[in-house]
Design a protein that fits this description.
Helix content is about 20%, strand content about 25%. It has helices at about 15-25, 70-75, 100-105, 125-130, 135-140, 155-165, and strands at about 5-10, 35-45, 55-60, 80, 90, 110-115, 120, 145-150, 170, 180-185. The longest helix has 10 residues, at about 15-25.
């Protein structure tokens, strides 16, 4: 089982509803963001094009809940760990705030909660999933750009969306950690 969030970048309008809802649901401290939105572009549609013939998209970045998470490998206490549903979680009782996981994460999505002295990150709203609800970012997405489910289940909505997207499926750059969350970008070129 591997729970993931599939994001259709062409539907994201950068309203920040996912980022705000995440902060409220998870009581994320000031100056920390478990979900941040990157604007990619604008780029010319065809070589030599200028405005208005440009394209851009928005990329919600959060923990990728990697299949082979480096953050778990470097954690000296086992606080960062992979769960049965495929998500990567932090046990705050075990975390000593050493920030090895912060340094090991290639996506810059882990943050030290200075008040508590522990590292925090997107939990994929494990408390909501346990109650049979969607992660808050998915539930609050105004553009219906985010989808949640088990990517390893071929009958799940996320598996079907990914299957139908074909060559338009992308993952964040892989540093050997095998990111699990999926991005779909139709017609545009993937650029970083």
């Amino acid at each position: 089982m591997q729970n993931v969030i599939v994001t259709e970048c062409n539907k994201c309008v950068s309203c920040f509803a996912c980022s705000i809802a995440c902060k409220v649901e998870n009581n994320v401290p000031l100056n920390n963001h478990w979900t941040r939105i990157l604007r990619v572009g604008p780029y010319p549609i065809e070589e030599g094009d200028t405005f208005p013939n440009v394209e851009m998209y928005f990329l919600p970045i959060k923990c990728q809940h990697c299949r082979n998470p480096h953050c778990c490998t470097v954690c000296p206490t086992g606080a960062s760990h992979k769960t049965e549903d495929g998500t990567v979680q932090v046990d705050k009782e075990k975390c000593i705030g050493c920030q090895f996981c912060v340094m090991a994460c290639p996506y810059n999505v882990r943050h030290l909660n200075e008040e508590e002295g522990v590292v925090e990150k997107c939990t994929m709203c494990e408390q909501r999933i346990a109650a049979g609800e969607l992660p808050e970012c998915v539930a609050s997405c105004t553009g219906n750009a985010m989808h949640f489910g088990d990517i390893d289940d071929p009958s799940s909505e996320v598996s079907q969306i990914v299957s139908e997207a074909g060559d338009d499926v992308y993952y964040l750059p892989n540093e050997g950690n095998d990111p699990a969350n999926v991005f779909i970008l139709h017609k545009m070129k993937w650029r970083f």
